[in-house]
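Lab notebook, bench 4. Still working through the backlog of constructs that have no structural model yet. Next entry is a single chain of 314 residues. Request: give me the structure tokens for it.
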Amino acid sequence: MYQKKSDILESNAPNMAVLSEDRKEQIREIIFQDILQQEVILSFSIQEIIFSLRVYNYFNDKISIRYYKKNYEVLKKILISKIRNLDRVYLTIENRTQFPFLNMGSVDIYSDENIAKEAMNFYKTKYRDLSVKQVSIEKDNVFATLFCLGVEHLRIDMGRYSIDIELEDIFDIPFQDARLIINPKLRFAMIDFLQESYWEGIYKAKQTTLLSKEEIMLRQIKKSTYLVPVQLSKNRPDQVKEEDIKFSVYKNKEGTSFIPIFTDWFEFEKNYNKAEWQGLVTNLDKIKLLSKHMEGVVINPSGENVYINQDELI
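Model written out:
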């Protein structure tokens, strides 16, 4: 993936050195032992554990630490446990899409609001329109939500001592049942394209990058499965015919009619009550026939709000 240097925060962050030199020396003395004292490591802050992991990586590259793998895994396990046990975390939200900001394919997660705000202010200098949102790990199901959005990579505390981890390291990925309608790859592709298109930053390969992201999005749109809101005649519950089906119509601000289609039940229920509307599971080829008398379809009208015209439904 093309890496935009203007979005690389850590090397430019003014407050990265938040640990004193004395504290960093104390941490080095604790972690460079054959056997880590886990009860001591458990008292470390998230920033201190990330610092420890980075120090391990740095010195292992230089001198090949013999106990590196074992101790690195211990530190990483404790870090993941601490993140899971946080009451809340902070996300940078891209304001036009209202989805987590995708930073070179990763979502930035912050353990502290001040770190998140520092990052937001930095990104504003790069023409990123972001805000900071506090989310409850448990109540907001933050990791499950990120999974449904197709996020695979997390960056913890970008701008201070930061580390990249995989979402599957911190969240148990659910079994993929074919009957479960979710489209994480499509959702990620739509959000990635939209955020890139809204960004006012200028760089040499922007047009090429936009075209590439749009192609990825269109490929995912064409091969995904959707929920289409319908109402079925109560007179023919066993043998439903075309005349027994009522489809919903979504009109944009100009009054143009589209068939609304949804990537998952979460987006479906933003617009339709499941007690009144059923979700017809179908693909784009069949949806094209349903929308032949309309301008096309709109995907997740209260989410990504992506319109596909009838002549593009091929």
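Notes after review: Residues 225-314 form a domain with the Trna Endonuclease; Chain: A, domain 1 fold (CATH 3.40.1350). The chain has three domains: 21-84, 87-170, 225-314. Flag for follow-up if needed.
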